[in-house]
Design a protein that fits this description.
Strand content: 15-25%
CATH class: Alpha Beta
Strand order of the largest sheet: 5-4-1-6-8-7-9
Number of helices: 9
Shape: globular
Number of strands: 9
CATH architecture: Alpha-Beta Complex
Helix content: 25-40%
CATH topology: Spore Coat Polysaccharide Biosynthesis Protein SpsA, Chain A
Radius of gyration: 17 Å
Number of domains: 1
């Protein structure tokens, strides 16, 4: 039986480290728009998972303009928001995409989706490229099985566990079926490919000033950064 896989882009306007970053210009368009447009290259349904705070009305309006449906839920209970959003859109599994990653690896995401849809052994609980101390900031790929998250939610996670989606998987790998993807090793000069600080914005806008292609790879971006 085929499964429905999509992409949930998580964003909120009042980011603690860089408030308003979702609408800051990156490569000639708001950061959230660039992330959504890049995600749409994967030929999967893309949805916005944001909060029910009025401050996020502008993010929903942007998603609407791009033809992307939104789910609005708790700002603090991110785990709950993830499950409810996935269920609202009928997703059996979803790629968790933080909407501050304008250069997330397209090839890794496509590979994760292909593995999730290979129903020979059933959908894994988590498919990930994350490796502590190795994965470059902004380049992690994670694809999560919705039913697994629902079961975790029903068990009554702690307040801290509710604030995140995947850390429990990494802390208790023996409880889950996890597929670890290994991206091609690379030495990057750029300190990170996520937008967390003003310096990140400066670095990424410098890269996109040379090439603003939506499918620009992290390796190509890093070559521009080195130049």
């Amino acid at each position: 039986m085929s499964i429905r896989v999509g992409i949930l882009a998580f964003a909120r306007y009042d980011s603690s480290r860089l408030p308003g970053k979702a609408l800051r210009p990156v490569g000639g368009m708001p950061l959230l728009e660039r992330v959504i447009r890049r995600a749409q290259l994967c030929q999967l349904p893309v949805f916005l998972a944001t909060t029910d705070r009025p401050s996020d009305d502008a993010l929903v309006a942007l998603a609407d303009r791009l033809g992307v449906a939104s789910f609005r839920g708790s700002s603090d209970r991110v785990l709950e928001r993830s499950v409810l959003a996935a269920e609202a859109f009928g997703l059996d599994a979803f790629a968790r995409l933080c909407a501050d990653r304008p250069l997330f690896p397209l090839d890794d995401l496509r590979q994760a989706v292909a593995l999730a849809k290979d129903t020979g052994q059933g959908t894994p609980d988590l498919i990930t490229t994350y490796s502590p101390g190795v994965t470059i900031r902004g380049l992690t790929t994670e694809l999560v099985r919705t039913e697994t998250l629902r079961m975790f939610l029903v068990r009554g996670p702690s307040v801290e566990e509710q604030e995140h989606v995947t850390p429990y998987f990494y802390a208790h790998p023996e409880e889950f079926r996890i597929i670890q993807l290994h991206s091609a090793p690379a030495e990057y000069a750029c300190p990170g490919f996520a937008v967390d600080t003003e310096t990140d914005l400066l670095n990424l806008n410098g890269i996109f000033a040379v090439s603003d292609a939506l499918d620009l790879s992290p390796a190509e971006a890093d070559r521009i950064f080195r130049a």
